[in-house]
Amino acid sequence: MNKSRTVSVQNQKSMPRKAPVKKMPMRKKRGVIGSLFLFIMKTLVFLFVGSILLVVIFRFVPVPFSAYMAETKIRCLVEGKDSQIYYHWIPIEKMAPYLPNAVIASEDQQFLDHHGFDFNAIMKAVKYNHSSKAKKKGRKKGASTISQQVAKNMFLWSDRSWLRKGAEVWFTLLIEVIWPKRRIMEVYLNTAQMGKNLFGVESAAQTYYRKSAKKVTRPQAALIAASLPNPVRFKIAHPSGYMYKKQAWILNQMYRLKREGVYAELMHKKW
Hints:
The chain is mostly helical. The chain has one domain (58-267): Biosynthetic peptidoglycan transglycosylase-like (Penicillin binding protein transpeptidase fold, Orthogonal Bundle), CATH 1.10.3810. The chain has helices spanning 2-14, 24-57, 67-79, 98-107, 119-129, 132-137, 146-155, 162-178, 181-191, 201-209, 218-226, 241-259, 262-267; strands spanning 86-87, 193-195, 198-199. Helix 7 (146-155) crosses helix 8 and helix 11 (218-226) packs across helix 12. 30% of the residues are buried. The mean pLDDT is 86.
């Protein structure tokens, strides 16, 4: 009896055993997915916190350069063109009052009332862009507010992808919450493109009128605004008939805004 049990145990020992199933690849796969998810989450948190910090910093600090200035310089270097950027920051108090009035009249008459987005203008633009008139002219109408333009010029790149549009919405909300309207206008007038490689009203005034932005006249301010948002095509130095017509319209709107006290309201909006 004991002998048969011994033989049985020996036979079991001599039988080849099955190799254990290795589970390491599954664990490794889960580890890679977990690491990737963690990396994505850390990146999103970094971008989230970083974007808020940037907007808070530039609430108080003069802007050394904008993202669009950097993009312009890099593009010129790559193409082998003149990459000199003409830019000089000045506070809004050193600008003629006609300049903010002119760009509000031309670009965004609801600037003091909206919270970053003019939904009425957006609906009108969508309606126009789907009309036969727009298709015939081959030109679409935009509805970007001054706040949106600041968000794009300051922090983003210039293509028209949905990713950039989404980032523009985020930065527009941030600056509307953290910056007063006065600061948004100050940054806009300093960083908006006013010609080829030329940014801001001080550089524009010195280049085109040989004077400081503080001494710009009402018609000159209206002509600067008439070149926006495409000052490379609509040249301030050589105004077209269209620009003079737009200048006259802007001047009429400026008189109306002056009667409504828009500039005084803007300058008192510290917060």
